[in-house]
Write a structure and sequence with these properties.
alpha/beta, two-stranded antiparallel ribbon
Amino acid sequence: MRRRARPGLNRVTRVPTLVLTSAVLLVGGLAGCAGTSGTALPAAGGSPSSASPRDSPGAAASGTGGAAGTPGASPAGQHNGNAPLSTAAPAPTRAAQPLAGQVIALDPGHNGANWSHSAIIDRLVNVITELKACDTTGAQTDAGYAEHTFTFDVAKRLARLLRAEGATVVLTRHNDHGVGPCVTQRAAIGNRAHADAAISIHADGGPPTGTGFEVIAPGRIAAPDAPVIGTSGRLAVDIRNAYHGITGEPYSDYVGSRGLDVRTDLGGLNLSTVPKVFIECGNMRNAADAARLTSPRFRERIAVALAAGFTAFLKRHS
């Protein structure tokens, strides 16, 4: 988004074979866009399955990251009234829905009609550290694939995966042909939902020679996000590990440090009272990154990676 996202009888009684068979079946069934980069982070381990204390985003985080989880939800079987009881699927369990009871806020950056409503999106809003535009139009690839289209597509895919794992998903926008909302409103939506975790989904418009992704955590300032600075930093590490390990996208080579960054100029982070991060999924201005970001298969992989990151984080913080 560049500017400038569970005892027996003594007698044996002969039982007809059909009755024995039914009994066996019965028992079996019952058993069964970014502006100028913020403070660069210290070098962090790139393993998708673990993180050391050095992985925490600078002074903004006060804990260690963990292993990235892998999302999965077993589809519930349906019982046919004419079929043996053993075909009925068991009730969903915590293992089948690891995110049951969790609320996750997804903020797909920008919006499709922003470009034609400059009077609205250019209005200045207070993001604590400065006044910034309500929203922006976002970046696009050289071939014209827009960031707002990319972010909304990824958010829809991610929402589907998270709901399959039992989570309640809240979106900051529900289509790709509207205007805004402002960054202040985007933060407020996650706050009102009392989300257990949140993410702003973006793709950068950086230098054409630059490649890779970064996950941005909020910096420490006198702002509403102060109580969640540490948990936001740990969320950033889990999202970074899962994204890098599952998508194969390299860490950004032109901003941040080993896929992590800390900034204090992003309203969506500054104003959040829930753990939240901001991801630049790649650089739309770079030909190699653009080819991946425009691929539906790769966008599905992005969604799988982000779901894994949330699962890893919420397993340890729920």
